[in-house]
Design brief:
Distance between the termini: 74 Å
CATH architecture of the largest domain: 2-Layer Sandwich
Number of helices: 10
Shape: globular
Order of helices and strands: HHHHEHEEEHEEHEEHHEHEE
Structural class: alpha+beta
Oligomer: single chain
Largest sheet: 4 strands, mixed
Length: about 260
């Protein structure tokens, strides 16, 4: 039967398979499929939408405060201890079940040793900053549109439009905003927008000695951030608020709020 089919078609099975193998090459010659498009399935790992995000590996943070110091210097944050774009909190789990949280001067000078007599089961550090939410309440409450989302998903404040009403400061559920007493306008972390748009890392990420902070494009498979998301079980702060934060934490304890 097979021989009869071959005789009717005029081609042997070997000739037919050989023609199939030549189809991709023919498509390339005719411009149906370009050579870059063929490679794109393996090498083009960047999505069309570029969204920046940050990951924090809690188990790597040592509470040194270098990130806080670098942020203040890079972004001209007021020197007073209560103005921060990013800060570090220390959580101490006591034997009696209580949880103590402290952040002396935002952690910029590190943390004091544990007090004598304290029965501390474990302690860890949690860096915090603006979460650059995908559903940001700060943008929704701004009456003049001074707070907005950039095309890359970064939440920014236009100081020329800001009237200092403090609505955004009150609306932020993460306590990540402050009013700059010099300009009377709201300020916050911008992921060092002036740096990342030049393919540089945020200052806090660049100085971290343990690589506790990871930064990159959410859609870039080769970025450290994508690898972190793939290799770890990640959490966000206050997920029940449905703000869709773009700061992800690994090894985040349930006591963190």
């Amino acid at each position: 039967m097979a021989r009869d089919d071959e005789s009717r078609s005029g081609k042997t099975r070997r000739e037919f398979l050989a023609e199939l193998a030549e189809i991709p090459a023919a498509c390339l010659l005719l411009g149906v499929v370009g050579p870059l498009e063929v490679l794109a399935s393996d090498k083009d790992d960047v999505s069309e939408e570029v969204l920046y995000a940050m990951g924090v590996q809690v188990d790597r943070c040592i509470g040194c405060g270098l990130c806080v110091r670098a942020c203040k210097q890079e972004n001209d944050v007021p020197k007073e201890p209560y103005y921060f774009r990013t800060w570090v909190e220390r959580y101490q789990i006591l034997a009696n079940g209580e949880v103590e949280v402290d952040s002396p001067k935002g952690g910029i000078e590190g943390f004091p040793s544990e007090e004598e007599g304290q029965d501390v089961l474990r302690s860890f550090f949690v860096p915090k900053l603006c979460n650059h939410c995908d559903n940001p309440p700060c943008v929704q409450v701004c009456p003049v549109g001074a707070t907005f989302k950039s095309p890359e998903g970064v939440i920014l404040v236009d100081s020329d439009y800001c009237i200092g009403c403090r609505y955004c400061i009150q609306a932020c559920p993460y306590g990540a905003r402050y009013l700059d007493y010099r300009t009377k306008t709201a300020d916050k972390c911008t992921f060092c927008y002036h740096r990342i748009t030049k393919e540089m890392l945020p200052a806090c990420v660049e100085v971290c000695p343990t690589q506790a902070r990871v930064f990159g494009h959410m859609g870039t498979k080769s970025s450290p951030l994508h690898r972190m998301r793939r290799m770890n079980r990640l959490q966000v702060l206050k997920p029940y608020l449905n703000t869709a934060p773009k700061v992800f934490y690994s090894e985040l304890d349930g006591e963190v709020r």
